[in-house]
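Example record used in the benchmark description.
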Amino acid sequence: MPELPAAFPPPEKPGRPDILFVAGEHSGDELSAAVIAKMLAKSPALKIAAFGGNDMRAAGAQLLFDMTTFSAVGFVEVVSNLSFYKKLFARILAWVREHRPRAVCFTDFPGMNLRLAKALTREGLSRKGGGDIALFHYVSPQIWAWKAHRRFEMEKTLDSLGVLFPFEVKCYEDTSLDVHFVGDPFAEPDHVLPVRYEAGAPVLLLPGSRPKPVARIFPVLLGAWKIFRETHPDKRAVVLHPGEPVRSILQELSGKNPEAARGIELVPVDAAAGAPQPASAVLMSSGTMSRSCSLAGVPGAILYRANPITWALGSYWVGGRIRYLGMANILLDRDVYPEFLQKDATPEKLAARLSACFDDPKILETMRRDRDELRALLRPAPGTPDAAEWLSGKLRELGARG
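Model output (structure tokens):
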């Protein structure tokens, strides 16, 4: 974990910040950045601060601390770094207490963000706690899969919630929370996805953005790649990664198995920014990149290996309420991407699926139909506010410059 500063920097611009974004992962950073860019394009005078990552900084927000280099997921991973997260939580809370933004937008990362919302309400800083700071949440927690009771806590603390997926609105029907389907910005026609389909392009191998899952998943990908190249020796692969410390893990694992790593290039995500990475097929962990690949029409498969304790607890909490891990599969309720999870994620099975993506033309035809259906599903109806318009409208109600 990185060293925390004694205090986070004050706002760059004088006066009260209009909105603070809090996003703890690369996916939340990317989603928030898309919203911030649109908001500032229409209202350049907005004062926006962020606990997030470089995407939000590039979009025009003042980055107070980079949250994307250390995010943990899963019970074991979080508990092992509990002291760090307690200090981080306290210092973010102190910053809000001192600088009093007009609004806070929590983007995903519910394990910390919902606790922050509760603390701001308990301290009387939020509107629902008697204060004047509006609390918004962008991206619903997966209450349709587990921890459904969270919606009642959210009702007590949040002023409004913007959800990515249309079915999520109904999940809050038994609350008074103001919920809006704002669509997925990745599905908008003008959004540049990080990947695009191209028949002769390299294969994408995407082990994730967090160090511990990458250390579990990348060896499986290397094994699958080695088997696949026995029948497809001319193919090349690209591994997109967020930078250190993931790059070091990838290099170390590749160095231990140079034969399996032959034909693989490690590419930082920043180097591909603005120019989508062409891909002919993909093997990937679940997450935001799986959604991007589905919207780009890149065929492939999902694999995931979690800490066994984390997996057991997650399976218990979910209790069979969902059939899939990948969001494209959940949304369309079918195998857009076959899922290979835990012990089922073997190099042999993944290599066979990868070979089928090149040898069976029906897979690509089906992928194109799925892509078009997903894009239509994830766009708001004409005249319905998207995420940037939703937040800007809420800021105008507060008297800010949204």
